[in-house]
């Protein structure tokens, strides 16, 4: 899917009154609250309607949130206003966006599995380069077993993550946590039900 098609696809998915993936943060992200401190800088990659970026801002972080869909960014800003926090919310195609280098204490990537393998490799490299030395990547995605559950995520098995794939992709980082698990997800209409998940916490040396 090219950039224009991707923008149009996600714009149409987000063009609804409610929030497709809900307004509360991803459970894996919320569980990392002890790793976060007010004043930290955070980047939420492909953050959709902003649920994760807004939650990070509520914890006192300075948050940049991005998405390819202008409608999603509008909704993220509306959610932030309702919650009384501010976001640097940017419409961004990750292939052409000017990624800041070594700028963030935390880079958050939750269910960003729109990217097929060659794109994914570039995306991971740009995410890693955006992290400050000592900073963290917090990532959650679906494993190939998710196809059978059918409760969210892409239908392309090659877009899904395995432990070996993530261990290899983040081999130059210190992997603090890497876990596969099947859990119940309740994140709006978009992600709902038993899901095959994988969590990664990696620190830039």
CATH class: Alpha Beta
- The count of domains is 1
Number of strands: 7
Q: Helix count?
A: 7
Element string (H = helix, E = strand): HHEHEHEEHEHHEE
CATH topology: Rossmann fold
State the CATH architecture: 3-Layer(aba) Sandwich
Inertia-based shape: globular
Q: Main β-sheet, in a few words?
A: 7 strands, mixed
Q: What structural class results from the helix and strand content?
A: alpha/beta
Q: For the record, what is the CATH homologous superfamily label?
A: Vaccinia Virus protein VP39
Gyration radius over CA:
16 Å
- What is the first-to-last residue Cα distance? 34 Å
Helix percent reads: 25-40%
Strand content: 25-35%
Return residue spans where pLDDT drops below 50 for at least 5 consecutive residues. Answer: none
Q: Name the strands of the widest sheet in spatial order.
A: 3-2-1-4-5-7-6
| Average pLDDT reading | 94
Domain Methyltransferase: 43-135
Keywords: Methyltransferase, Transferase
GO molecular function, one term: methyltransferase activity
InterPro entries: Methyltransf_25, SAM-dependent_MTases_sf
């Amino acid at each position: 899917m090219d950039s224009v098609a991707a923008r149009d696809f996600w714009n149409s998915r987000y063009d609804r009154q409610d929030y497709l993936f809900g307004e509360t943060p991803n459970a894996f992200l919320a569980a990392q609250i002890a790793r976060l401190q007010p004043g930290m800088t955070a980047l939420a990659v492909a953050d959709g309607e902003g649920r994760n970026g807004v939650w990070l801002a509520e914890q006192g972080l300075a948050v940049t949130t991005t998405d390819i869909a202008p409608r999603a960014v509008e909704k993220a800003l509306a959610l932030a206003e309702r919650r009384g926090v501010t976001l640097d919310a940017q419409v961004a195609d990750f292939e052409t966006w000017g990624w800041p280098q070594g700028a963030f204490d935390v880079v958050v990537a939750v269910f960003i599995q729109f990217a097929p393998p060659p794109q994914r490799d570039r995306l991971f490299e740009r995410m890693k380069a955006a992290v400050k030395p000592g900073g963290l990547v917090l990532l959650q995605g679906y494993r190939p077993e998710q196809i059978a559950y059918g409760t969210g995520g892409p239908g392309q098995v090659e877009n899904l993550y395995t432990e070996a794939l993530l261990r290899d992709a983040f081999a130059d980082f210190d992997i603090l946590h890497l876990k596969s698990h099947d859990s119940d997800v309740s994140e709006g209409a978009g992600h709902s039900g038993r899901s095959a998940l994988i969590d990664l916490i990696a620190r830039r040396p």
